[in-house]
Structure formats: C-alpha cells, structure tokens
Design goal:
It is a single chain. Helix content is 2%, strand content 56%.
Length: 240
C-alpha cells in the first residue's frame, strides 16, 4: 500500500536544534501526501549487548509499534529496516537511511516497494519502544488441522489453519487461504491467553482471533485485514 503513496512526492520536514546527536529517542515527522498525510513516529533505544531496538507507528496505515530490525549507526549515519510489515516481494523490506545534521534533525531517504522519498524527523522526547509480545504454546485441544470457509468481496475463500506445539518453545501455525489463488501467510505470532486465540501475519496485515467452542469441534472467530472483518468458523479436520 505504501508504495503507491510514496511514488511521486517529496517530504519537507521541519527541524529542531538539539544539544546532542544521540539517536536514542522518539522521532516524528509528517509525510504530506495530498489528502492522505502520513504521521510517522520512530522510537529507537539501546538494547542488550550493545544492540539497538526500535519500533515504528503510522496510524494512517494501521501500523502501531511495528518492530524495527538491523538498526545500525556509523558516526552520524543511521540505517534501519522495518521488519516484516510493508515488505515487498521484489524489493524486500522497507528501509530508512539518514544522518544527524547540525540542527539535530535526522534526515535521509525512506525506501519501500522500489520507491524512495526524502524523510526528515525531529526528536520529540524519550524513546517509547513497543516491544512485540511473545508467542505462546496452545492447548492440546487446538493442536492439529482446522478448516473453514468465508466470503469476501463476492469470492469464497477456503482456510486451512494448523497448529503445532514445540517442547520448551512457542507454538507455530500454518495459515493457508485459497481463493482465486493459494496464499500461504507468513505467521509470526501465535497466542492463547484466557481462552482467546490470536494468530497474526504482520507482513500481510492479516489476523484471526477466536475461541474454541464448548464441544471442542469448532473454533469460532473473526478474520481481520486493515479495516475489514469477516466471521470465520473453523472445524477440526482429519489429518488423513
């Protein structure tokens, strides 16, 4: 989505003089897309073992606290990658490369989907990095294969969701949706808390949340992608 709004425009950002060139902190800027401005907030902070951690928020894209990766600094130059979300199959993950100037602004280039745009950010306060939650194991009553169907935009979709627990580690899930074509979603989060199951693919913005019904044979919930929601009931399936 972002590739379409980045093409053909430039970002002019105001800067604010700072007494330090430290990249740690909250950085904010506005992408002035006509009729669709994007408010960008990047939080960067020191992590463990000398590494950096960070997150990015863009409310207009329903992006909140998405993790940053590969944060590096050399002298006053800074580079970072937006992990998973906004990735492009051809161009790879979205990236920002910038440099702290004499006024304290972090100015550089944002690249996504083969398009680039200037981006200027100013420090507005201390970092408020949103550390992503950790996946959990699921109950044995959820392990295995579940199937179901839903309709969206006039087309039927068939869903296969398979959960696998791993000794001493979190569960993983295989999430396949077949409509006009087969889509294998890259699941990066599985959680079961107080009976609420949550499966997320941050790269695609797709998620499923639901609860196991009393008979144990149905998993009822909702599929979400951006502002869209559709009900989905999954039934336990044979592994044959």
């Amino acid at each position: 989505m972002l590739k379409t709004v980045l093409a053909g425009f430039c970002l002019a950002g105001s800067t604010l003089a700072l007494a330090t060139d430290d990249i740690a902190g909250r950085w904010e800027g506005l992408v002035p897309v006509p009729e669709f401005p994007l408010h960008v907030t990047i939080d960067i902070a020191p992590g463990s073992a000398g590494a950096w951690i960070g997150s990015i928020t863009v409310p207009e894209l329903n992006l909140s606290g998405a993790p940053l990766a590969d944060i590096s600094r050399h002298d006053k130059a800074v580079a970072l990658t937006i992990k998973d979300v906004l990735a492009d199959a051809t161009a790879g993950p979205a990236k920002f490369e910038g440099k702290l100037d004499s006024t304290g602004a972090l100015s550089g280039t944002f690249a996504q989907g083969g398009n680039t745009a200037p981006l200027a950010l100013k420090k507005t306060g201390a970092a408020q990095v949103q550390v992503p939650p950790q996946s959990t194991a699921v109950g044995k009553n959820l392990e295995g294969k579940w199937i179901g169907d839903y309709e969206f935009d006039g087309y039927a979709r068939h869903v296969t969701l398979r959960f696998t627990n791993h000794p001493g580690a979190a569960a993983t899930a295989d999430f396949i949706i077949v409509g006009k074509k087969e889509n294998v979603l890259p699941v990066d989060f599985v959680s079961l808390e107080e009976g609420l199951l949550l499966v997320e693919s941050h790269q695609t913005g797709f998620s499923f949340e639901g609860r196991l019904r009393k008979d144990g044979g149905e998993l009822g919930g909702i599929c979400k992608q951006g502002p869209y929601e559709v009900p989905l009931v999954l039934h336990r399936a044979s592994e044959k």
